[in-house]
Amino acid sequence: MDFSLSEEQVMIQQAARDFAQQELLPGVIERDDAQKFPKEQVKKMAELGFLGMMVDPKYGGSGLDTISYVLAMEELSKVDASASVIVSVNNSLVCWGLENFGTEDQKQKYLKRLASGDCIGAFCLSEPEAGSDATSQKTTAIDKGDHYVINGTKNWITNGGTAEIYLVMAQTHKEKGHKGINALIVEKGMKGFEIGPKENKLGIRGSDTHSLNFNDVKVPKENRIGEDGFGFKFAMKTLAGGRIGIAAQALGIAAGAYELALKYSKQRKAFGTEISNHQAIAFKLADMHTQIEAARNLVYKAAWEKDHGINYDQSSAMAKLFASQVAMDTTIEAVQIHGGYGFVKEYHVERMMRDAKITQIYEGTSEIQKIVISRGILRD
Length: 380
Ligand code: CAA
Hints:
By secondary structure, this protein is of the alpha+beta class.
């Protein structure tokens, strides 16, 4: 078993680490406070090839493996989880879905722009009454011969306001249940497509999350991804990979908070010595370090399986379930180690604690991951 990274992977990791320190760290507190989308930073990430990391260079991507993607996600998330979710959604939900299931025309027209970061995309599955229960799609896409007409509402859509290309799941054949759902490419500006107000969130406040309204939106049939009725499978297959990205985000948030807590504990003195010399703190650091390493192994393993053509439905669910819990536990302890300083914004860890929570919710809650894992165990 070889746990070492390739030279290229180390280079990507270092590039993401440098970018996070130089470009994301300045202003991260202010962006969180003001719910400001990191527009300039996203532009620079596009230039560095972070928005289409796994996409074939012939479609404008960087042609890297999933391990490289995960390494970059981890480093970006150590500093700014709002920026990293933009990267994650664009890479693993939008670009990956289009590259693997889109037509050549769709790749030429949409994937090239998305992978090069000329624009960003959004993945629209959740609805006011269909979050975890994703087969219960109320949004409809009525077949009108050469086009579909979409009506309905999507909720909590990451990149909702800033995206230009949206992958929208909608019900075409109600009687067929999930087998009647289609995935359609919707462009910003299509008549009847409205972006709702921005959500005021607990965490990842720099990322922009909106509800979307579709009122008789006409979408040409050539914008359907896959065969008629493939939409739910498309969403599930895509989300299996997306969960690796979010697991890497959770890992990064945990590792970032741990690094800050470790540094602080070696500087802060109490009872005549650095607090890291007190076993109460040293044991917390030992637990955090161990948990993060375990999470890292699960995340890298899921990415490795994806790169090796092994089914990763279960490993991605396990990685996300575990890493998101580690993110919560570690950030709470990082605040505790910082004491009163941890409770104020300047020390970053309170933001990380708020950011960590979403990793247990989006791209399938922890409870959904347990459904996926337990079904896998019982089926095998
Ligand atoms: N790959 C391929 N097909 C899959 C699949 C996978 N990973 N998982 C399920 N399917 C297929 C099943 O085989 C089944 O097809 P058949 O009937 O042909 O066999 C079909 O999908 C339905 O599956 P289930 O019967 O298992 O459906 P279910 O109603 O019991 O629900 C679920 C399954 C796993 C709970 C699913 O509903 C789910 O994942 N829910 C969570 C949704 C989610 O993750 N939402 C996140 C929103 S996106 C987001 O957050 C993005 C963002 O902006 C950050």
